[in-house]
Each structure stands twice: as C-alpha cells, then as structure tokens.
Amino acid sequence: MKQTWILKERYFKSFLQIFFKGTAGQYFTPLNIVRFMVECFDITQDDLVLDPSCGSGGFLLQTLQYMQEKKKIKPKNF
C-alpha cells in the first residue's frame, strides 16, 4: 500500500513540475520535508488538516498515509 501512494505521488508531482514549473511559478515542497512536517505535528483523527496551497496535494496525501500507517486508522474514518 505504501509503495502505491509513493509512486502515485511521485508521478503526479513530476508531471506538475514539468508542466507548470517556471511558467506558472509553482514550486513543490520536497517529499522528505513534507513527511517530516506531518510527523512533527502528530496528527490525530480529531484534527482538522488544511493545505491552503494544495499544489499537488502532497501534505494531504502524506497526512492520509501517516494516519493509515502510524495511527492504524482506515480511510473511511477520515
């Protein structure tokens, strides 16, 4: 399951970077930084997660993955 998330995120982000970078002025937070930030917040099921920039959805995807892997919460309960 983890590999699927990572692959989808990488392909999507690569596509966006090629398509938008420079012309649209979009820049994406590196995946290792996103993971670090999500883990630092230690998000729980009751927390509200907001990604106001939401370029590629990296923070939201990593939060979902974190909740599944670390907190053992099923996606239907998000």
Automatic annotation (TrEMBL):
Which residue numbers delimit the DNA methylase adenine-specific domain? 21-72
Q: Does the keyword S-adenosyl-L-methionine apply?
A: yes
Q: Does the keyword section mention Transferase?
A: yes
- Entries under Pfam families matching the protein: N6_Mtase
Which reactions does this protein catalyse?
A: a 2'-deoxyadenosine in DNA + S-adenosyl-L-methionine = an N(6)-methyl-2'-deoxyadenosine in DNA + S-adenosyl-L-homocysteine + H(+)
Picking any one GO biological process from the record gives: DNA restriction-modification system
GO terms for MF: DNA binding; N-methyltransferase activity; site-specific DNA-methyltransferase (adenine-specific) activity
Which UniProt keywords are present, listed alphabetically?
Methyltransferase, Restriction system, S-adenosyl-L-methionine, Transferase
Recorded E.C. number(s)?
Answer: 2.1.1.72
Where does the signal sequence lie? none
Q: Which domain of life is it from?
A: Bacteria
Sorted alphabetically, which InterPro entries does this protein's record hold?
A: DNA_Adenine_Mtase, DNA_methylase_A-5, SAM-dependent_MTases_sf
User: Which SUPFAM superfamilies does this one have?
Assistant: S-adenosyl-L-methionine-dependent methyltransferases
The Swiss-Prot or TrEMBL record describes its family as follows:
Belongs to the N(4)/N(6)-methyltransferase family.
Annotated protein name in UniProt: site-specific DNA-methyltransferase (adenine-specific)
